[in-house]
Records
---
Amino acid sequence: MRISRILAGGRSTPRALPNFDSTTIFVRAAARYLRGEDFPALGMFHPKLSGLAPVLNLNHLPRTVRTSMYTWGGTNEGVPPDFLGDVDVERFREWVVDQYPERGYPAVMVGSSNGAAVHLAALLGIPWLPQTFLIPVRRSMGPDEIREDIRWGEACAEPFLEENPDASLHQMHDPNQDRLMVRKLGYFRTKVRTLGEAYEEFLETVLEPGGTIVSLECGYDWPAVDVGERHSFQLGGLGGLDPEEYYEGSDRVASFLAEQGATTRRWNAPEPDGRVPEAEWGFDQHLRDDVARIADDRGYDLRRLSFDDPRDLSPFVADRYRERYRERNRSTERLFAQSFALVEPWWTIRTGSIPYWTAFNTRPDARSLEAYLEGAEPYDEIRANLFSHGVESAGLASVERWREVLDHARDRRGFVGVDTNAFPYDLESQFRYHSDIPRTIDARHSHPPPMPFERFDELAGDVADEYSVRWETR
C-alpha cells in the first residue's frame, strides 16, 4: 500500500471535491476556528495519523519517491472524465455550509478564495462561503502538452456544463508550479454564478436580522483561451512567472524547461482570446448580482471588499489584528507569515501572533511581505512557514531569500515547521506547519471574543484608502 494511502484520512467531501485544494482547506480552517478547534494536517489526514509523519521519515525518502507521492496523492482524489455529468456543484455548497456551526452571525463573507480572508473570518467570528471549487479529473498527459490538454478538456466538459448551468468552467494547466500534478490530473476549476439553495438557506438561517453580506471580490485576471460557452482555458497561474511568459516564453521559462529535461524551451499554446477571472483566485462578477438580489429580498446590508491581487488583502488583515490586539492590551510585536494552504487561525491567535498570508512561496510573495514590513511599525519577532509543492519551479524564492525577509525582525526570527534542507520537497511540512507552532512560539493568550462587526465596518471605511483594497457600501 502506498504511504499516501496509509496517511489518507478517508473522504469527507462530496465526490469530485478534493481534500487537497486551497478552497477546501480554507473552508475547513475557518470552520474549525468558529467551532473552537485547531487545524492540524490541513484537514486532509486523521489527527491520530498526523504523528506518523516523523516516524515514517518522509523527508528521508529519495527525492524521486517524494515527487511521486505528490503526483499520486492528488491522483487518488481525481474523478474519471465520464463522471463529470454526475457532478452537481450544489453538493459542494451543501458541504461548505455543513462545516459551520449553525448559530447567529452578524455577517457572512461570500466570494473569492483567499487565505487572508480565513484570518479575517476568524477575527470577526463569521463564516466564509467560497465561489470557486476545484474538480480534479483523471487523465495522463505530458506536462508540456498544452494544446492536447485544451482538446481533451473541450471533449469532456459538456456534460458538466449542461448539469451546472449556473457555473463557469476555468480549465487550468500550470506546467510550472503544478508540473507534478498535471501529468495525471486535469484541473477543472468552477465558479458558481449564483448563491444556490444551500447558500441561500444558510444565510436565511444564520444571518442575524439586519445582518450584512460581505461580497469578497478579487479582481485578479489572467489571459485565457475561449473554449466554449462558460468554458475557458488558462495556461499557468499566480506565482513566480508573469502571465505573458507562459504564452510567449522567456529566458526563465527556457531555463526551467531545460532543468526539467523537457524537449521544448517554451510552451506551445494558442494565443489568448482575452482575460478572464483567474481560475483559483479571481471573482466572477455574476455572483455579485445574485448576492445583491438576496440582500434586497431579505433586507440584508451589503458590503463589497474588493482588491486587484490576492496578496493585497494581507496587509489590511494584519493591521486589523494589530489594532484588535492593541485594544485588548496585548503585544503587537509578533508576525506569523503563512504560505498558501498552511493557515492556522486557532494557533495564530492562541500565540498572540499577527497573521500575514503569502499566496505562495515565490519571489513576488517574498517581495510583497517585504514591502509590508518596510512600511509597517517594526516587529520584534517574525516567523514564517513555507508551502512545499515538490518542484523547483521558475520564480521560486529560495530559503535564503525568505531569510532575508525574516531579517526585518528586530529580535527573534525563523521558520515554523520547515525543513530548510528539504524545501521545496518538504513533505512533512504539511504536518509540522501545525505541530511546530506551540514548540516554536511559547506565548499563550486566551481567544478573545470576535471584533464587533459594526466596529470593523467603521474602521474599514476609514482606513481602506491606505491599502490596496476597497470597502464599499452599496
Note: Residues 182 and 299 are 45 Å apart (CA to CA).
---
Amino acid sequence: MSESGTFAIVGAGLAGAKTAEALRAHGFDGRIVLLSAEPHRPYERPPLSKSYLQGNAELDTIFVHSPTWYTEHKVDLRLDTVVTAIDRHDHELTTRGGERLRYDKLLLATGATPRRLPVPGSDLGGVRCLRTLDDSDRLKAELRPGARVVVIGGGWIGLETAAAARTADAEVTVLEHAELPLLRVLGPEMGKVFAQLHIEHGVTLRCGVTVAALQPGVDPARVGAVRLTDGTVLDADLVIVAVGVTPNVDLARSCGLNVDNGILVNRHLVTSDPDILAAGDVANAYHPLLCRQLRVEHWANALHQPVVAAATMLGETASYDRLPYFFTDQYDLGMEYTGYTDPGGYDQVAIRGDLDARAFIAFWLQDERLVAAMNVNVWDVTEPIRELIRSGERVDATELADLNVPLAQLVRN
C-alpha cells in the first residue's frame, strides 16, 4: 500500500523503530518522523539486564537497526527530542525546543519509567535503576568483585541484575517485600524455584521485608547502607532499585486521551482519538482472546504490535491477539513464559519434567483449561503451548505432566 502524508512516532524504542520498519514494509512512502528522548538510536532492552550487562554481548548487537538504516529507508530519526504537547485539533506536536510538527497519523510508544523508592536517601549517589542503555553502562562499570550490592525488588529486573552482579563476583543481597520473589507473576510454586536458584548461586535473599531508608556512608553524598523497618542495617556499595515501572502517560493525558494503567487502546491499538495509536509498554490494549484490557511490559509486545499498528495506520483491518510472551536468562537457567493468569487466577499447576534439575515445563490451569505455561531449560515447545492455550479446550493435567505424551498430540485440530 502506498500512501502520502506524515506519520509521527513518539518514542524510539523497539516498538517505535519496528513501527517505522513495518510502515515501509507495508509500502508507505510518505514521511516518517521518529522522535526519541534518548541520545542513542533505537535499541532493544532485554540485553541491558542480561547479556550486555554481563559483558557477553557487544554494543552493536543491541540496536534495532544499523546506523544507515534510517537514512536508507527515509526515516527522519530525531534523537534528544522531547515532545511536550499534542494538539489533536490541529494534528500538531510541539517539542521542548519549540518546533511544531504536523502529523496525519501518530503513534505513541513512550514506554515506561522506573519507580523511585519513596524513602529517605533514595537520591544518594550509588542508587541505581535499570531502564536505559546509559543505566546498563553505569551498572556494568560498578559491578566488581567484592562489591556489596543490595537489590531492592525480586521481580524480573531485580533477579536478572542480581544474577549479573553474582556473575561479576559481587556480594549480593536481594530484598523482596513479598514472601517469595516473582510471587505475583508465578505464584508460590514457581517463585520457590527462582528463590532456590539465587540462593544456590550465593545470593542472600531476604523476603517479607520493607526498606525504611537508604543511608550515606563515609562519603555523605553516596549510599553506604540500607536500613529496613525492622532495624536491620545492610552495608551497601551499590543499591539497585527494581520495584517496577510506571507507564509514561503524561503526554497522552495532557491532550485528553483516555488513560488507565497506560494509554487505553482497542484491539487495533487505536486510542480514543482515531488518528492516534499506542504500542509497547505504554499501551493498555484490549486483548480479543483474553477479553480484557492488558498492558504487557515485555519485549514480545514491542516487537509484534508494530505490524498491527502500521496496518491500522494505513487503513487496514488488523487486530493484536498474540498471547503474552517473555523470557529470562539467569545463571544456567533459561526460561520462556507464554500466556497470562492473574495472581490466584488458576486452580492447578502441572509439572512435566524434572523440577529439581530445573529442566521442566510448568502448566497453569483454570477449570481444566490451560491459561499459561513456563518452559525452563526445555526448548521448542512454545508453539504447541500457544495452540493449547488458544484452543480453550479442556486438557488432562496428567497428560500434560506425562513426558511420554507429546504436547502436539494434546492439540485438537
Note: The mean pLDDT is 96.
